[in-house]
Amino acid sequence: MQRPEPQEFARVLSSMCTEPHPAARAAAERFLATNPGDPGTYGTVADLEREAVDLLGEVTRLPDPTGYVTSGGTEANIQAIRIARNRTRDAVDRPNVVVPDHAHFSFSKAADLLSVELRRAPLDEDYRADLDAMAALVDADTVGVVGVAGSTEYGRVDPIPDLAALAEEADALFHVDAAWGGFALPFTEYAWDFADAAVDTMTIDPHKLGQAAIPAGGLLARSSALFDTLAVDTPYLESTGQVTLTGTRSGAGVASAVAAMRELWADGYRTEYERAQALAEWFADELRERGYDVVDPTLPLVAAALPEATIGTLREAGWRLSKTGSGEARVVVMPHVTRGALTSVLADLDRLG
Ligand code: 0PR
C-alpha cells in the first residue's frame, strides 16, 4: 500500500532531521504502544534501550556506557547540566556552566530551569570554541564545561581534548554536545575516543544523522554514578527509581534507533558521511565560483552569505532554507539532500538570484 507522506523532503535544505531509514520506520510502528519508562511492564523495549546505549557506545567509542534514549538533544543537554549541578550541590551555592557562544539554545533552557548561570564565551575566528576565552570564564563555581562537536549553525567541532583538560582542572563536568555531528565524527579527523578524551557526558541524537524516527535523542555518561545524581524514587512501579526527565517515553523512538544503528553502523553511516561531505564541498565551491562568501564545511553543512533578497526568492521557489544568526543561508546536507536538489538550487540561483 502506498502511504501518504506527511513530510516531503525534496526541498528541505536546513533541517537536521531526515527521512528515517525504512527499517527504523518499520520498527517505530511496531513499538508505538510501548513505554521504556516502565521497564517492569515493557521488558522488550527496555532490552532494546540497553542495546541502543551499547550501540551508541560503539559509535562514540565509550566502552560499557550508561545512558538512555531521550526525547531529543534538548532533553539530553538539560540532563547533562542537571548532572553537573547535582553532583556539586553541597559544595557550590551559585553554580555556573561555561559554554562556547555557539552552544545550542537548549543550554539556555537548561540554565533557566536549573537556576544555573550560563556563561557564553566568544568563538575564535574559525567559529570554534576559543580555549582562552573559555578559561577566562571558569572560576571556583564552575560546575560544567561544554564542547560542541558539530555546531548548529556552521557544523564546527570544538577542540574537545583541550576543553576536557580545562574542565578537569576546574573539577567540573565535561559535556560534549554531538547531537547532530555524532554519527559523522567517527569518520573524520575528529574521531577522538570518548574515554581517552575524558568526556563525562555526551549528547548524540539518533533522530538526526542517525536516521532514526523522531523522538530519539541520546545521552551517554562515562559512569553510572553520574546518573545516580538524577535518580528519584518510583514507589508504585515495578522498578524502584528513575533517572530520565520524562516519565512515559517513546518506545517507537527507542526501537527505531536500534533498527537504524543495526542497519547502518558502521558502513552505512560512513558511506553517507562520505557522500554528504563530498556534496557539501562541491556545493561550497559552486557558490564560491558565483562570488559568494562561504563558511568552509568541516562537516556536511554549508553556510553562505547570500543576499537576504536572494534567500527570500529561493524560499518563494519552495526551498525550505533557514538563516544563521548572522544571516547566511544554511544548507544541512542530510541524507535526503541530493546532488540533483543542490543542482536545482544553483540553477534557481542563476536564474533568479
Ligand atoms: N544540540 C545541537 C548541536 C543541535 O543542533 C540541536 C538541534 C540540539 C542540541 C537540540 O536537539 P533537539 O531539537 O532534538 O532537542 N538543532 C536543530 C536546530 O535547532 C534542531 C532542528 C531540527 C531544527 C530539525 C529544525 C529542524 O527541522 O536547528
UniProtKB/TrEMBL annotation:
EC number annotated for this UniProt entry: 4.1.1.11
Residues with N6-(pyridoxal phosphate)lysine modification: 208
UniProt pathway annotation: Cofactor biosynthesis; coenzyme A biosynthesis
Segments crossing the lipid bilayer: none
Molecular functions per Gene Ontology: aspartate 1-decarboxylase activity; pyridoxal phosphate binding
Coiled-coil residues: none
Record key words, sorted: Decarboxylase, Lyase, Pyridoxal phosphate
Keyword Lyase attributed: yes
Catalytic activity, reaction form: L-aspartate + H(+) = beta-alanine + CO2
Cofactor: pyridoxal 5'-phosphate
SUPFAM superfamilies the record matches: PLP-dependent transferases (SSF53383)
Pfam families: Pyridoxal_deC
Keyword Lyase listed: yes
GO biological process: carboxylic acid metabolic process; coenzyme A biosynthetic process
InterPro entries xref list: GrpII_AminoAcid_Decarb, MfnA, PyrdxlP-dep_de-COase, PyrdxlP-dep_Trfase, PyrdxlP-dep_Trfase_major, PyrdxlP-dep_Trfase_small
Domain of life the protein comes from: Archaea
Record's function text: Catalyzes the decarboxylation of L-aspartate to produce beta-alanine.
Family statement drawn from the similarity comment of this UniProt entry: Belongs to the group II decarboxylase family. Sphingosine-1-phosphate lyase subfamily. Belongs to the group II decarboxylase family. MfnA subfamily.
Entry protein name: Probable L-aspartate decarboxylase
Organism in which the protein naturally occurs: Halomarina oriensis
